[in-house]
Write a structure and sequence with these properties.
The protein has strands at about 5, 10-15, 20-25, 35-40, 45-50, 60, 70-75, 80-85, 90-100, 110, 115-119. The protein is mainly β and about 120 residues long.
């Protein structure tokens, strides 16, 4: 099973940018489809973006489309989320997740990194 560790969160003003990273270990990173989710205080966890095992297919939540970009470097075992034009409503704990092949469920999760956007 793959282990995931996020980094790159922080405090940023509205309109600013952040780049999150998710380092994977313990298994073959390129086997897994990957995604970012987020959870704001008092709210349900929500999907942010996903990317296929071999970079090529991506999908985004409507709320972040055009502002966030998901990418991966299979040579570095790392997933990224470039976030631009940040809004206060983007404030949340961001988690990366891994989905094994031939499954529909994300089974490995990182501990999360806090992103806070001030107005």
């Amino acid at each position: 099973q793959v282990q995931l560790v996020e980094s790159g969160g922080g405090l940023v003003q509205a309109g600013g940018s952040l780049r999150l990273a998710c380092a994977a270990s313990g298994s073959t990173f390129s086997m897994y489809a990957m995604a970012w989710f987020r959870q704001a205080p008092g709210k349900e966890r929500e999907f942010v973006a996903a990317i296929s095992r071999i970079p090529g297919t991506t999908s985004y939540a409507d709320s972040v489309k055009g502002r966030f970009t998901i990418s991966r470097d299979n040579t570095k075992n790392t997933l990224y989320l470039q976030m631009t034009s940040l809004k206060p409503e983007d404030t949340a704990v961001y988690h990366c997740a891994a989905r094994p092949p031939a499954t529909s469920e994300y089974k490995s999760w990182g501990q999360g990194t806090q992103v806070t956007v001030s107005s």
